[in-house]
Amino acid sequence: MSTTAVGTFTFRPLDPLKDAELLHGWVTHPKAAFWMMQDAKLEDVERAYMDIAADEHHHALLGLDRDGEPAFLMEKYDPAHRELVGLYEPRPGDVGMHFLTPATDRPVHGFTRSVITAVLAHLFEDPAARRVVVEPDVSNKAVHALNEAVGFVPEREIQKPEKKALLSFCTREQFAAATGVAV
């Protein structure tokens, strides 16, 4: 469980079949353009998350609000085996991360920052996690600002097959210094 300024979030493994309809609405919304699933059909979402569920190096979790309702999506992966293979030199304790907050008609100020804070706190609960790695699209300025707010430091731009990305890192010490959250 991770407590943040907006509330308390818990995490549970994503169920690719039960949660596919919910996720489909999230990943195909125009707000989720950087998720690159705008034209996905329900079956595409099921298949993508079934593949993740079967992958020992990639995991999808739902972040739940204090009422136990799905509030956001989080993926964690081993960058030595997924996403960044051959694009940087991974270190022991590196963990890759993606997160998605769904579009809403009733935005709550600070919600997305609370989500990324909870996601990093959750990742750093694992004593083996020493550094979180992200690779957002270079044009996603909003997520760059969020990443910086929780301690990420950009290293360089990299070219992935699907996008030009900003490779950034956050150590547990940088996260604690930026957020005041002890991990």
Automatic annotation (TrEMBL):
Q: Where is the Acyltransferase MbtK/IucB-like conserved domain?
A: 12-59
Q: Name the pathway.
A: Siderophore biosynthesis; mycobactin biosynthesis
Q: Which GO terms describe its biological process?
A: siderophore biosynthetic process
What InterPro entries does this protein's entry cite? Acyl_CoA_acyltransferase, Acyltransferase_MbtK/IucB-like
Q: Which residues form the signal peptide?
A: none
One Pfam family assigned to this protein is Acetyltransf_8
Q: Name the Gene3D superfamilies on file.
A: 3.40.630.30
GO MF entries: N-acyltransferase activity
Listed SMART domains: AlcB (SM01006)
- What are the UniProt keywords, alphabetically? Transferase
- Function field: Acyltransferase required for the direct transfer of medium- to long-chain fatty acyl moieties from a carrier protein (MbtL) on to the epsilon-amino group of lysine residue in the mycobactin core.
Indicate what this protein is called per its UniProt record.
Answer: Lysine N-acyltransferase MbtK
According to its UniProt entry, this protein's organism is Streptomyces pseudovenezuelae
